[in-house]
Structure formats: structure tokens, C-alpha cells
What we know:
Blueprint: E1 2-5, E2 18-22, E3 32-40, E4 50-58, E5 67-71, E6 80-83, E7 88-90, E8 93-101, E9 104-109, E10 119-122, E11 131-132, H1 137-145
Antiparallel strand pairs: 1-4, 2-3, 2-5, 3-4, 6-10, 7-8, 8-9, 8-11
Amino acid sequence: MRVTYPLGAIGPKTPPILRATALGAGDGPGSSLTLRPVWSAPADAAIPGRSFFALLEHGDAAEGERLMVFAANGMPRSGVEIPASAIVMSAGRYWCYVERSPGNFARVEVQADEPTATGYFVASGLQSGDHVVIAAAGQLLAQESNSGGEPD
Length: 152
């Protein structure tokens, strides 16, 4: 398959491996496809950017199907990936809820500027092993924002 990244989006080296996900596939079994080997493709004036050819190692993609393709870019960093369903917006910022103890939830601000196939990479504020709320986070925000007296 041919993969093209926008100009400046990927470094000068050819990535050794690419990971692809069908648009809207979520994070179910078989949703991530591995592409290797990877080699440079000639430039295409109709699609500006840096292009590569890669072979689909395992899995299935239909001819003409559009995929979201990810490549390692730069030095590895520590952080966690959280599902998109964990993110809530309030006051123009992005948040998620972490269960600190059974039934006790804390709202943690996250940077949502590094999307992944199924969510967001978060470099700070969360640690591996944190129990992130992935369903009903909006209800926690509503309950927290409720200016009424008694909690539900």
C-alpha cells in the first residue's frame, strides 16, 4: 500500500514499521494492522508530502480502502494512551476522570493534542496503572458541575 504523510510530519528516516487502523474500527480485535517492510515511494505531485510503500503483514484491507496510518516519529517517550471515550471537555480544556479509591474520582487535565487510532497519548498527569473512567465520564462531569445541594 502507499502511505503519504503531510510535509514536515515525519522525520528524514524511513520508519521500520507502520501501524494502520481502518477508519472507525475502534480498538476491537484485529483493528490494528502491521505494515512492513517499508520503503520510500516516489513523490506524487497530486498528493504533496512524503510517501512510502509498505506491505500488509497480517490482516485484510480492501482495495481503495482508506486507513489511518501511524509511524514512530522521534525518540520514544513515556506516557499512556487513553481511549477517546475517557475525554470530557469543560471550560475549553480536556479532562478525564481517574478513580483514586473505590467510588472516589478525581478530574485530571490532559493534553489531547496527540491523537492515536483509538484515543490520545498523554505524556503527563496520568501514570500506567491509573484507573481511568472510560464510560459515563460526562455524567461525572455533570455531577461535579451541578451547583445543587445533594449529590445523587
